[in-house]
Amino acid sequence: LNEWEPPKFVWRTLYTLLLLGLVIKRVVWQRKLNMAQTIQQIARVGPDTLGVAMLTSSFVGMVFTIQFCKEFSKVGLTRVIGGLLGLAFTRELTPVICAIVLAGRVGSAIAAELGTMQVSEQVDQLRTLGSDPVDYLVAPRVVACALSLPILSVVSFTIGMAASILLADLRYGISPNAIVDSAAKYLETSDIGVMCVKGLAFGGVIATISCGWGQTTTGGAKGVGESTTASVVISLVAIFVVDFFLSMIFF
């Protein structure tokens, strides 16, 4: 036992959980947040993710439209296609797709940035100057991702539905009014709320994992690359795990 050392993954996971607790303590209970850094991170997260998320949602929506229209046209149920698309997008597809894009586009950048600061001892310099790295580096990024992802999800949902309506009209001759009426019939306000809650949770998880893995980076440039890759992979796994538990709670 004296010679046994836990795997590095275990220590990093524990540190990331501790980091999440510190962020919640600072933001929720103590209400301490560096607004300048948070606004700066929000301005960075939104533009970096919006274009890719909209493009991805558009093509995913069109792929599902092809499958739904082809199969439901055989049994004369084209008037339920809009409702199925709306439910699929709001409950699962849109928040998960946007979270995956955020993890690859922003999460990797956060891990690389904090990892570089860690190996170059910039984080230690912040402590020497009397600044708390959690307040200055971690909390603004977690809040920015958590607030930005629900907004990105709503925009991507709108674009995805618009692309689906356009394809259904041009390719299969299904009236846009039929899809819109069907979506309005089946969708409820709570479905939009679930989408936003999932986006909030996914954004917080992605940013926390990226910050945790970035701040535990060792080994110079090689360690930064390994931390960046590992943070993206673990974020993707965490997205689906959290999505499962949230779906169990809501549905």
UniProtKB/TrEMBL annotation:
Organism: Micromonas pusilla (strain CCMP1545)
Compartmental location: Membrane
Main location class: membrane
InterPro entries named in the record: ABC_MlaE_roteobac (IPR003453), Permease_MalE (IPR030802)
Membrane topology: Multi-pass membrane protein
Protein name per UniProt: ATP-binding cassette superfamily
Transmembrane segments: 12-29, 50-68, 80-103, 142-167, 230-250
Signal peptide (from-to): none
GO molecular function, one term: ATP binding
A GO-annotated cellular component: ATP-binding cassette (ABC) transporter complex
Keywords on record: ATP-binding, Membrane, Nucleotide-binding, Transmembrane, Transmembrane helix, Transport
PANTHER family: ABC TRANSPORTER PERMEASE PROTEIN-RELATED (PTHR30188), PROTEIN TRIGALACTOSYLDIACYLGLYCEROL 1, CHLOROPLASTIC (PTHR30188:SF4)
Protein family according to the UniProt entry: Belongs to the MlaE permease family.
